[in-house]
Amino acid sequence: MTRQSLMDAVLELIDEGMGFASISIREVAKRSGVVPTAFYRHFTDMEDLAFCLVDEFSLGLRRVLRETRQQTRSVGPLIRQSVLIYVEHVQQNRGLFRFMSQVISGGSAPLRHSVRNELQFLANELAADVGHLNLLPDLSQGMIEWATQLVVNTVTGTTSELLDLSESNPLEVERLVDKTVRQLQIIFVGAANWQPIPKRTPELSKATEQALLFTAVGH
């Protein structure tokens, strides 16, 4: 339990406004109610603890994916339900998501690389789900992976906005949910209607190229 209590202590300090880079082992130990030397029984240093938090973040998102798999197979309701499940997960783990935001924007290179790997894994797993549910039957697996990468990027941006909102203002949270759902719907509608744009030739005018682009995204 001490290992988890040390990790929880870091997240509590971050949720109270501290930056991960400024948190000392002594502060973590004090918050956990243990002596500083107890920290080293579980972690070599703060970065070692940070990698464990990245693992916890990844496991949590995989649980969210498993939960969404149990929802309807229709794209429209599935998107909204998935966003609601994700928002609830963020609100229940604000410290962890604040930590991830700090790592993405200013963590060490190895930590940023670890987070990017986890987000890529999430996009690949989401692509596998989309293929399994046959949600984009006319797209190649490669194109599906591009679409799910856009989904992950969109949700990552939503997370930053969500963390800035107060849980006591459900109306603003609902507006953010609606905006995110619309953004994801645009991604899926665009992907479902995707048509490759021909390589530009002297005969392909700029106006024709723009018209093809609008057609490709479903306008």
What is the CATH superfamily of the largest domain? Tetracycline Repressor, domain 2
Helix content: over 70%
Model regions low in confidence, pLDDT < 50 over at least 5 residues: none
Relative strand content: under 5%
Largest sheet: none
Structural class: mainly alpha
CATH class label of the largest domain: Mainly Alpha
**Helix and strand sequence:** HHHHHHHHHH
Q: What is the count of DSSP helices, taking H or I runs of 4+ residues? A: 10
Mean pLDDT: 86
Radius of gyration: 21 Å
CATH topology of the largest domain: Tetracycline Repressor, domain 2
Number of strands: 0
The structural domain count equals 2
Shape: elongated
The end-to-end distance, rounded to whole angstroms, is 55 Å
Query: What's the architecture of the largest domain in CATH terms?
Result: Orthogonal Bundle
Descriptive overview:
This protein has 219 residues and is mostly helical. The chain has 2 domains: 1-43, Orthogonal Bundle (Arc Repressor Mutant, subunit A); 46-196, Orthogonal Bundle (Tetracycline Repressor, domain 2), CATH 1.10.357. Helix content is 74%, strand content 0%. Helix 5 crosses helix 9 (170-192).
